[in-house]
Amino acid sequence: MIKLLASLCSLTGLSVVLVSAQDVTHLEKIGPVISIEKSSTTVTFNCGDKSQVRLTILAPDLIRVRASFTKPIPTRDHSWAIARDDWSTPRWSLSEAAESITILTDELEVVVRRSPFMIEFRDARTHDLINADEQPMAYDAKGTLADRMFDPKAGMFVAATKKIGFDEHFYGLGEKAARLDKRRDSFVNWNSDTPGYTLGKDPIYQTIPFYLGLQHTVAYGIFFDNSYRSYFDFGHSSQQRAWFGAEGGEMNYYFFYGPSIKKILGRYADLTGHMPMPPLWALGNQQSRWSYYPDTMVEEVVREYRNRDLPLDVLHLDIDYMQGYRVFTFDTKRFPDPKALTEKLGREGVKLITIVDPGVKYQPPVPNAVQLTSGMPELQPQDQRYYVYEEGIKKNYFQHRMNAELFIPRVWPGEAVFVDYTLPDARRWWGDLHRAYMDNGIAGIWNDMNEPSDFVDQTGKNQFDVVSFDEGEKSTHAKNRNVFALLMARATYEGLERLRPNQRPYVITRAAYAGIQRYSTMWTGDTNSTWDSLALNIPMFTTLGLSGEPFVGSDVGGFMGRGNGELLTRAYQVSFLAPFCRNHKVIDSYDQEPWRFGKYYEDIIRKYLKLRYQLLPFLYTTLEEAHRTGVPLFRPVLLNYQDDPNTYNLDDEFMIGNDLLVAPVLKPDVTRRLVYLPRGSWYDYWTNKKYEGGTMVSSDAPLETVPMFVRAGSIIPMGPQMNYVGEKPSDPITFAIYPDEKGSASTTLYEDDGLSPAYKEGAFRRTTIAVKQVAGGYNATLSAPEGRYNPGPRKLSFVIISEQATRKVVTVADDGSPRKIEIK
Ligand code: MIG
């Protein structure tokens, strides 16, 4: 059987399918409704072709659609993405008419037409159409669309088609090298190692099969929870329809109704998990290089940062810190005493992060090699025996092919093996292995190559018959590739939680599947040091934010190729407000640390890094909002102004939270640019000059200036300048107050210990402040703080910003009690 498969594969050449060029309308369509069954939370439709469709009412604005073609829905129901299944059933009703069946919740009216089987989602109050099937759900019984030889267990291609509105816009799908609005585009999800990718390259590293549709200011969301290679077409192959499908698995999607995108993102976070708070220092500036070694060079980089008065919280060790790329070891010549190193750097306020790849060096022990006895195997010579390989073999945690052979891909260590992260015990083992890092004071873990990349072949061909345990299903690569990184990140996160229960884990990943935000932050992989690549940062970061991944960033200055001072400076003017701000560079290219192009550029970069640290109270407050509500901090303007069509294609500017709008320069030799300001009034951050929004303004943008505007009516909480988190207390907190037309402004400030998981148990402080204009000045009202975290005594400073040069400033001692402060 396996031989036969293999020869068939070589005959067919396992071609990668170009489904976008195919016509999904030729698929078999699901049969008409014959009968229905109702339970307290579901309606099941039995169809003429023996197919079954089940609608589950999870919330008034959240309906799951699950279909099984030509056979009943299986009882097995498992997804690695889903975080929650304990939904309390909302009020809903069912009514049957001759032509259709209607499910009604407080927010949604779902109309299922019996023949042909078509689903419509309407607003329960207005009955307006939100989204409708263009054709019945469909499947490929003949196997013409998917190359089923790729995975004999995959089953068939499944697809759903949706009508496209004349003015409908599409957003989301996670990490895509694409513009913000995805209308007329099409995409494939198949996690891929794609160094040097440019606009239009698809797929790249991650799979987040979640998108938003927006038409006439009304938004809905669709999460197609299927980990097989999947396809999304937003009017590319036909102007009539959007469709999504996958090369196997179930037609299984969740329909979210807004109408606001923010509400959908909250529900999506409820369903697939909220991002936990990372440590506050993760918002600090980070520096990396492939690779800094030995230890003295690491110290030199840190010294350079400190001597030059440049802020730095984190330094990264790329793959050369290991013994011959063996994960969970240190090269003892380059890093003889990693613990001493992390302690030394710790005194400088710098933390170390190590890269960890999934490839475990394939290394059967040399005969008669002595068993290691040390409690610290990571610091022992590994050339005779490699403890990670040996333990993994003994426990049988590595992946095998269908014919039971060990799967041996080639990655950085040469021949290697991969862990089957679908095995709970293997995940636990992998997590516990991080003791090798935690015991040496390593602060966080950077997961790379987890698509999983394989030098033998990057398309997955070499892995097609690799079997994963998958909750007993023993499924193959076609199903498991896209969740590999999710499960590796999960193993890592849970390991860090166990090893250091009093500290928040900090994990960074390259590849992902939906749900990744529960375990890991991300960066956008191997970009280029080009202006085009820089311009991609904004639609990519904002799109990730619209896809449930708030903690994002990109190698500042670009990864591949030679940069220059102007590009690097402009890159910092984008990333100094991105959650992940890390300069990183490929091994064989030119140096790119902030000082490498001379003092002129370094001085400007310093200014932005210093400003980032001053803005930490504001950034941290918006980050906590992302954790709690699913609404990202790095936002497309449209997220705050969903009713303004001028924002629907706007992806060369962004907002941080609700209040700060940034319009970076993304081209060389430019010193001025147009900025769209939405309705309301705006203050130029640099000059305090006021603008009326709802229009384009021309803004000065010499190299030292990134156009930046503050929404009138907001208050930006800021801290003192510092060179690393914790260098000094956040004292005073300065509230920069930008009054609106009525003289009012308000905000909240979120604080906690920045390090421990105690915030989950209420150890935080949320302070609301509201400012009103009164005769002769302003009154600020501090509410009674929420939560039981006490930041200790400090001063609060209130600054009224106005176009006039005179600034009113009042400073008071903060004792955490509600009060009124007069600013005169
Ligand atoms: O095959 O670890 O995206 O950030 O420096 C390249 C070496 C492997 C790819 C990562 C990049 C990292 C590099 N890695």
Give an overview of the whole structure.
With 824 residues, the chain is an alpha+beta fold. 18% of the residues lie in helices and 30% in strands. Strands 1, 6, 7, 8, 9, 10, 11, 13, 17 and 18 form a ten-stranded antiparallel sheet that branches. β4 (52-59) and β5 (62-68) form a beta hairpin. It binds ligand MIG. Ligand MIG binds at residues 290, 318-319, 355, 448-449, 510, 525-526, 584. Residues 290, 318-319, 355, 448-449, 510, 525-526, 584 line the site of ligand MIG.
Layout of helices and strands, plus pairs?
Elements: H1 2-12, E1 28-29, E2 33-38, E3 42-47, E4 52-59, E5 62-68, E6 92-96, E7 100-105, E8 108-113, E9 118-123, E10 129-140, E11 157-163, E12 169-172, E13 186-189, E14 206-207, E15 210-215, E16 218-224, E17 230-234, E18 241-246, E19 251-257, H2 261-272, E20 286-287, H3 295-307, E21 314-317, H4 338-347, E22 351-356, E23 360-361, H5 387-395, E24 400-401, E25 410-411, E26 414-417, H6 424-433, H7 435-438, E27 444-447, E28 466-468, E29 475-476, H8 477-499, E30 507-509, E31 512-513, E32 521-522, H9 531-545, E33 553-556, H10 565-575, E34 580-583, H11 599-614, H12 616-629, E35 634-635, H13 637-640, E36 654-656, E37 660-662, E38 672-677, E39 681-684, E40 690-692, E41 695-700, E42 708-711, E43 714-718, E44 733-738, E45 745-752, E46 764-774, E47 777-782, E48 794-800, E49 808-814, E50 819-823
Parallel strand pairs: 14-31, 20-21, 20-34, 21-22, 22-27, 27-30, 30-32, 33-34, 44-48
Antiparallel strand pairs: 1-10, 2-3, 3-4, 4-5, 5-19, 6-7, 7-8, 8-9, 9-10, 10-11, 11-18, 12-15, 13-17, 15-16, 16-19, 17-18, 23-26, 24-28, 25-26, 28-29, 35-36, 36-37, 37-42, 38-41, 39-40, 39-42, 43-44, 45-46, 46-47, 47-50, 48-49
